[in-house]
Amino acid sequence: MASVRLERMKLVLTDWITANISFILFNILRYFDQSSTSFSFEAVCSYLSQTKICIEQILVPPAILAVYWLSGFYNNPFGKSRSGEFLNTAAISAINTIILHLALLTNDQMSDISSNLLQIMMIFFIFFLFTFLGRLIVINTQIRHFKRRDWKYSAVIVGNSSKAHDLAKKMKDSKVVISHVIEGFFRIPGEPDHKDNAYDLDTIEDFCRERNIDQIILAPQKSDEENILNLVYRLFPIGKPIKLSPDTLNFMTSSIKLKDIYGFPLVDLTHSSMSESEKNIKRTFDFVVSLVTLIALSPLYLILAIWVKKDSKGPVFYRQERIGLKERPFDIIKFRTMSTDAENDGPQLSSDFDPRVTKSGKIMRKYRLDELPQFWNVLKGEMSIVGPRPERKFFINKIIKKAPYYTLLYQARPGITSWGMVQYGYASDIDEMLERSKYDLIYISNMSILVDLKIMLYTVLTILEGKGK
């Protein structure tokens, strides 16, 4: 299979070239609209070599590529359809046309360009035509490689029953453009073996790393929800897309979108329901807001740090390992709100009148000021401003035994705030954690920018009313 990074670079380079060509033609159009003289090659070259135009030529194409990135076009360079990218390119070209018109043309002394619909349509046509032609070349090249079977997804199937081998045969016989080569089958404990050459499930992580596997496909004999989600929980740390045949779906996974339009119909269990564009906008928003918050509130951080230090012995900040996106561990950072010996007897959840909480900690927890340092985790990409609440492995193992659906929360980055925290608040035992997780599962099924904004608004109201614990 071709390198994802290489194909992404091809798309970026192609867009950069076509953006430069389009912007040169755009500036030629500007020249003719501003100039009252007859056409002259020398005059056009002189106009294009002006310092202002040269600076724009350097700065505008990268800005155009930034809009393309926000659209999610580069997230997954494979499996793109020509019709889908036609519509995507048309929409993004329209956005770029509006931005260029507002940013550049309204300041030019042009012949009523602001009200000239024809001029705007010509600008749109230039950017759309060259961008789509460039992308079409790359996409057609990819499709040819897949059709000739030069490129295939390398995959393993988790399952060694007759059902698993039937699925492998269907995938092999399928006439789809994007095909799979099955590198091996892995036994699921408790299920019958259809063939003897399968591998033990405990070896799958090393196998995927050594063989550079692209995808993991689930094909359990039992299609019940608990069995599937327990497998997903076990396989998430490998870091490969985990896919499932649509005929295995139930109400818990039915909202997850199909991927790879040219490929065998499989459902990706490792990606949230957000569009690629929304994911990029969300991450950009997280980064910008976190950076601004860390800078703007730096005096408050200093005051809180001094307060924590004076109130009790111990470090200002409290670091603790939590489990994040795709079960990756990370160290969450907070202002310390408990005594340093708070967990000498092992991991414990806090309660409303927890004697371990310091005086400063009680107030900070009430207004959730202790969570302000987590904007550093957001800036690093370990967390999001809004997402499921991150928990410790110790408690997650207990939750999974009672509610395997908790596995689905690993599709998204954990958040400083969450729908569960807004609607339920802090939890003092496993049962309360389970109740709160149901709200986070609802969030995962309905993730969107608007939902995030709604949760942030509720969080601000919670903080202002001092309803934290």
Question: How is this structure best summarized?
Answer:
The chain contains 16 helices and ten strands. By secondary structure, it is an alpha/beta fold.
The shape is: flat
Order of helices and strands: HHHHHEHEEHEHEEHHEEHHEHEHHH
Sequence of strands across the biggest β-sheet = 3-2-1-4-5-6
Oligomer classification: single chain
Q: Stretches where pLDDT falls below 50 for ≥5 residues?
A: 251-256
Question: What is the structural class?
Answer: alpha/beta
How many helices? The count is 16
Give the overall average pLDDT: 87
Query: Nearest-angstrom radius of gyration?
Result: 27 Å
| Overall strand count | 10
Into which percentage range does the β-strand content fall? 5-15%
Major β-sheet profile? 6 strands, mixed
Helix proportion:
40-55%
Query: What separation lies between the terminal Cα atoms?
Result: 51 Å
Overview of this protein structure:
- This protein has 469 residues and is α/β, with parallel strands linked by helices.
- It has helices at residues 4-34, 41-48, 51-70, 82-103, 117-147, 162-173, 204-211, 225-235, 276-296, 298-311, 359-366, 374-380, 393-402, 419-423, 430-445, 449-464, and strands at 153-158, 180-187, 199-200, 215-218, 242-244, 267-268, 317-323, 329-335, 384-386, 415-417.
- 51% of the residues lie in helices and 10% in strands.
- A six-stranded mixed beta sheet has the order 3-2-1-4-5-6, with helices on both faces. A two-stranded antiparallel sheet has the order 7-8.
- Helix 13 links the parallel strand 9 (384-386) and strand 10 (415-417).
- The model is unreliable at 251-256 (pLDDT under 50).
